[in-house]
# Entry
Amino acid sequence: MENKKISTKKSDLEAKGIVLCGLCQDMMKKIPNEGVNLTVTSPPYDNIRDYKGYCFEEEDFKKIVSELYRVTKKGGVVVWIVGDSVKNGSETGTSFRQALGFMAGGFKLHDTMIYEKNTSSFPARRTSKRYTQIFEYMFVFSKGKIATGNLICDKPNKWAGHTNWGKNTHRGKNGELVKTKDIKPVPDFSPRNNIWRYNVGKGFNSSDKESHNHPAIFPEKLAEDHILSWSNEGDLVLDPFMGSGTTCKMAKKNGRKYIGIDASEEYCELAKSIIAKYKPKKLGLGPHADADWNYA
Ligand SMILES: C[S@@+](CC[C@H](N)C(=O)[O-])C[C@H]1O[C@@H](n2cnc3c(N)ncnc32)[C@H](O)[C@@H]1O
# Structure
């Protein structure tokens, strides 16, 4: 591997995304210290699937956490989406071990969020002894105090338009009741909770049919919701286990720079072809904003 670092200079990366093919524990070495604002990723876990033979083991995990810590800006975020398989009648606990591994690596555990799916390929039967497994963890780690939080406000308020107390008076200096002029009614929407529900499966996860040539994509809306929540336009978003390129595609669509890494050449080609279909959101960055964006 050529060890030249990728430039994250404004002029070099502002309007470009990059796809790197190789093991992320090696490829991340190309990213300079504190170059990345946000990582949104889902690693292979418990060898549930065969990704063209690529997986990662315990010792790789430590290297990956340490590289992610190095490349993340102060206040930056890593969203790590992971679950457990069942082995010998017990859940493996991989997700918890990894969450603790990130904390041991210096990250704060900002929030333990849940990705709830609307359906499962293995629903419980009445005679089963285990309920249907319907969620994955979305661990949100931050490097120090989190810098960006643009909470999505789409939870409708039952009492929208009303005032909180039904009264628009307050106590004046002498204790008498006076009319409040600027009393604010309950807004139409408030920030959503930390359990996010998505429809999954073919036709729901992705607007690109060919994404399903990859066996384990996450919903593009999930990637977008994290990108909007924890980064701003012009920020750099990383996915070290890029697969079909869902995170990179949504980063590009939302005016973020991106770096995607995958060990499989076939998935890198798939991701590049999907990402190339999308136009970057115009950022008003000057003459190079449109030129050369399709670096991937
Ligand atoms: C769960 S999939 C990611 C899917 C992706 N979120 C999407 O929506 O398409 C995990 C990916 O990690 C890749 N992978 C496995 N080990 C890797 C490693 N050490 N470095 C980079 N990629 C790896 C696999 O090839 C696979 O595509």
